[in-house]
Amino acid sequence: MANFLKNLVTKNAKLTIDQLIVKKTVIAFFFFSVFCTGAVGAWKWLQRQPLDGGIRGGIPQPLRNGLDKNEAIFRDLLSGKNQAKEYPRSKAEKNVRVNGDVGIGDDFDPETWKMYVLKSNGDTLALGLEEIKKLPKTEIVFNFKCIEGWSQVTWWGGVKFSDFVQAYGLSQEAAMKYLGLATPDEEYYVGIDMPSALHPQTLLCYEMNGKPLPMNQGYPLRLIIPVKYGVKSLKRIGSMYFDNERPPDYWAERGYDYFIGL
Ligand SMILES: Nc1nc2c(c(=O)[nH]1)N[C@H]1C(S)=C(S)[C@@H](COP(=O)(O)O)O[C@H]1N2
Ligand SMILES: [Mo]
C-alpha cells in the first residue's frame, strides 16, 4: 500500500504502463466523487429552499428565479419596443373573421353598458361610449394573428390606451405592472403587461372598417393590441383594473403563454 501511494505521487515517467493506468483511474475517481458530492449537495440545498407558491406549493424559488429571468428577456423582446407592421386601408379585409364568443352572450343591454375603471384610490369611473369617443381617434390597419393559425389584415379605429390613461389622469395606475380587463359578465378576462398596454398601437377600439363594431366583435368597445396574439384583444370590455400582480387570464389558465407577444 505504501508503495502504491508512493507511486501515486511519483513522476509519471518513472511509472510502468499499469501503474500509470491505476494512477489516472484513482485521480479520475477522486474528481468524480468530488463532483457527485457537489451535485448531491446542490440537490439537497435546492430541496431546502422555499417554494414559489405555485400549483401544489410550486417549485423551489431558485428555479423560479431562473424561469423569471428567461421570461423577462422574452417580455422585453416581445412587447412595448416593437411595432406591428401597418398596411394601407385598401389592403384591409372586408369580410372580417369572427372568432371566440366567451363573455359576449345575448343577455347584454348595450343601452346601459358602461366601462368600469377601478382606480388605485378606491374610486371607480363609469364611462359611456360617448365619453371615450370624445378623445382623439386613432386608426390602424395591421395583420391580426390568432394562435389557431390564421391571420387577417384588418382595420380598426378607437382611442389609444395611452391617450385614455393621460386624459383620465391614470398615471399612478399606469405605473403598475399589469392591466386587467374583463367582459361585463366576467366570463372572459385578460392580463396585459403595462408596457404592451401603453404601446402606441394599443387601442380601446369602437370601430371596424370605419363603422361601429359589430355585436360579435365586441360592441361597444373592445381592446385591439397588435403586439399580441388575438387572444388578448378582449371583445366587449366591461371593466378594467391595475395591479402589480398578474391579473387572471382566460387562455393563460388553459396553458398558453401569459405574455403571448409577437
Ligand atoms: N370576449 C371575448 N374576447 C375575445 C375572445 C373571446 O372568446 N371572448 N376570443 C379572442 C380570440 S382567440 C381572438 S383570435 C379574437 C378574435 O377577434 P374577432 O372575432 O374580432 O376576429 O378575439 C379575442 N377576444
Ligand atoms: Mo384567437
Write the layout of secondary structure elements.
Elements: H1 2-9, H2 17-48, H3 61-78, E1 115-118, E2 124-127, H4 129-133, E3 138-145, E4 151-160, H5 161-167, H6 171-174, E5 178-182, E6 189-193, H7 194-197, E7 203-208, E8 211-212, E9 222-224, E10 239-243
Parallel strand pairs: 1-10
Antiparallel strand pairs: 1-2, 3-4, 4-7, 5-6, 5-10, 7-8, 7-9
Overview of this protein structure:
The chain is an alpha+beta fold. It contains seven helices and ten strands. The chain has helices at residues 2-9, 17-48, 61-78, 129-133, 161-167, 171-174, 194-197, and strands at 115-118, 124-127, 138-145, 151-160, 178-182, 189-193, 203-208, 211-212, 222-224, 239-243. A hairpin with a 2-residue loop joins strand 7 and strand 8 (211-212). The N and C termini lie far apart (67 Å). The mean pLDDT is 89.
Ligands present = ligand MTE, molybdenum atom
Strand % is 15-25%
Output the strand order for the largest sheet.
2-1-10-5-6
Using only CA atoms, what is the Rg?
29 Å
Major sheet: 5 strands, mixed
Tertiary shape = elongated
Number of helices: 7
What is the count of β-strands?
10
**Percentage of residues in helical conformation:** 25-40%
Distance between the termini: 67 Å
Q: Give the helix/strand class.
A: alpha+beta
